[in-house]
Batch of 4 targets.
Target 1
Amino acid sequence: MMVSSERSLRLMVEKWLTPNSAMLVRVTKIRRSRSDHGRTVRIEASRAAGPIELFFFRHSDGTWCVFPPENERPSMSASWRAA
């Protein structure tokens, strides 16, 4: 299992954008969801080829990814008890 510090927002930005001293990287939008306490962050990077934007989503385990977390689905379980 991956430790959440290994998937911090800073590390994910560095992984996907590989910023250097000539590249300006900034947070352009932060969205918080009240229903599931999720967060979405839009990052913009200025490059010679033109700007690029990426969205990062915070998952329930504290990690940040470029894909949104799956919605929790209702589930049923049965627990067996010894008589």
Target 2
Amino acid sequence: MEDKAILDDYFHQKRYEQADATFMTLFAWQYPYEIQWAEEDNVLYIRSGRGKKQFWLPPFTKKDADFVKGIARMHEWFDARGYQFLMKGVVPEAAKRIHDLCPDCYDITPDRDNYEYVYLTQDLINLSGKKFRQKKNNLNHFRNQYIGNWEYVPITEKIFGECLDAEKTWYDQHDTDGEGDEELLGERHAIETVFNNWDALQAVGGAIRMYNKIVAFSIGEMLNDDTAIIHFEKSDPTIRGLYQIINHEFVVHAWSHTTYINREEDMGIPGLRHSKESYNPHHYVEKFDVTLRQK
């Protein structure tokens, strides 16, 4: 946590749109993804992954720092260990800088599974027009079906435990073979980490209580001056309209002052991609993988 001020200083140098450029993301996922960082000559380096499948994010630079030197230091690191050069989370601006640096040196490949979905806040609040008809139908079904039996509540320390109980219910519904899912367990650890450092991370959350039980919750933060980012959202999939209600109520109560909502990537999961596409994103935060071109 004592590293937060250092990393935030880099992330506030310019307007970043991607989830990788927030301390909460890196801090919450540091153990599941083995995230490490280093700083040298006003360049911030972030690496992740295990064994020979390690990768780096593009260098984050302060004013007058040397982006090119940052790339060179990455090459030194990979070469010293005999690993294949791999940079992930490369947004278009950084991809262009890397291509211009040496047009014939790198293969720059779209990483569609990690494109982040960015929505207009007012679209998520109003759900206007034919393109949101099904969302609004589900929302109205929930409100009519459970009238007087549900409420939206902000997340505070008092309900951390209830939210974790709801997450466990969600996990049990998705761990169908009962053998444990490493990715989902990593996410649980990340959520617990956020709860354990809630105030320091300046996290914001909302939950839906039905029949005196938390059945859905969402956690986010401000990403930049006009965008909120939703890091975690859990909901009982057996209750029609519950996903729509937590999505809608959280945005209305916590983020109505923003212009955009970033709901992160779909990780190539078909159902998640369909869900995120169905909310009609305003644009994507495109990301690319950068590898050395084979000669």
Target 3
Amino acid sequence: MKSAVFTLLLTVGLASSAAAQKQDRHAELPGIGDPPAARVEEMTRQMSNSLHLNEAQYIRLRAVNHIKLARMDEISWQYKDDVAQQRAKLGELEAQYEDECSRILTPSQLSIYRAEQHQDTVPATPDPQEGGLG
């Protein structure tokens, strides 16, 4: 009887110690965890509006967006001191994301998505005739 009680107390002690260490680890790594649901929903809703997704595509894309945002936060945290490595990892993540999108979206939706991405990445060239000194 004494050994059973001792074993139970030892198990409870170890479990609480492990839980405390896990909480400390999450406190040290704030970038790891789930992205806010509102952020995932907003990103997916914007894509749904511009790409005219059906319900199945919306559900699959929401899951992929959740993974992408969580991984982006993780990469930003892990490589915060090494900007070159961070950019490389984010580039790999973006390539994986586009592969997943190509499995979900139709060819016409994919071309619209890529056109929107191209608009976002290419800065507008300033008009030399506008603004400036005269």
Target 4
Amino acid sequence: MKKQVVVLEDNPNIRELIEYILEDNEIDVVSFDTVTAFLNALTEISPDLFILDIMLPDGSGIDICQRLRSNSETRQTPIVMISAHFSRMPTDCDAEDFIEKPFDIDNFVARVERQIA
């Protein structure tokens, strides 16, 4: 059974690149460009990994990370934060990994696969 990754990324070029990379590695991807769309679908998805951009037009990936960690259904699901505006993991988010944009594609895939293994 294929693994599923949920991506919350507002930049359409980066979101499409991530979708392409992961689907090319036989990983199902469900992506969202806003916090609102993500939250509206949250009860209908059960991914193996969340990839969250930190800075979003209608909210913060950090707030979403905290919300996922406080929810009993998503508490154990790994989270990878990504950002072009931060150089390291924010301390107020309990994510498993942080990837700075721009990222190396091979490194990105390896880190995602490590989280969903």
